[in-house]
Amino acid sequence: MALETESQHFEAIRADLVRTHAGQFVLIKADSVDGVFTTFAEAFEAGVRRHGLEPFMVRQITAEDAPILLPALNAGLIFGS
User: Fold this and answer.
1) How confident is the model at residue 52 (pLDDT cuts 50, 70, 90)?
2) CB neighbours of 51 closer than 8 A, spacing ≥ 6?
3) Sign of the alpha-carbon torsion through 65, 61, 10, 6
4) 73 in a domain, yes or no?
5) How many domains does the chain have?
6) Nearest to 26 by CA among 35, 16, 13, 18
7) Domain enclosing residue 50, as ranges
């Protein structure tokens, strides 16, 4: 799975991040937090500057993941694999 290490690290520290930075965006590379930012764009730009084409993860800090809604998929207008 892509970004598995980053995802596992996020889950391990999610509760602490929610207490201190709820609603903001965290930049994670491997098992290290590279910063917390106000907007997705700020976090993404920092990730590109620091890591270039190497994979990194930007996630919004929330207690639970919001479901991804794709009305076109549900209506049968597009198909998932």
Assistant:
1) very high
2) 29
3) positive
4) no
5) 1
6) 35
7) 4-64
DSSP helix/strand/coil, 75? coil
Q: Is residue 47 one of the residues assigned to a domain?
A: yes
Residue 8 confidence (pLDDT) above 70: yes
The verdict on residue 29 lying in a domain is yes
Whether residue 79 is contained in a domain is answered as: no
CA separation (Å) from 28 to 38, 39, 60?
15, 15, 11
State if pTM tops 0.70: yes
Find the DSSP H helices in the chain: 4-21, 40-51, 71-74
| Chain segment 57-75, per-residue pLDDT in tens | 999 999 999 877 777 766 7
User: Residue 15: what pLDDT?
Assistant: 97
How far does Cα 81 stand from its chain's mean position? 23
For 76, left (φ over 0), alpha (ψ -120 to 50), or beta?
A: left
Q: Which of 50, 53, 52, 11 is nearest to 34 (CA)?
A: 50
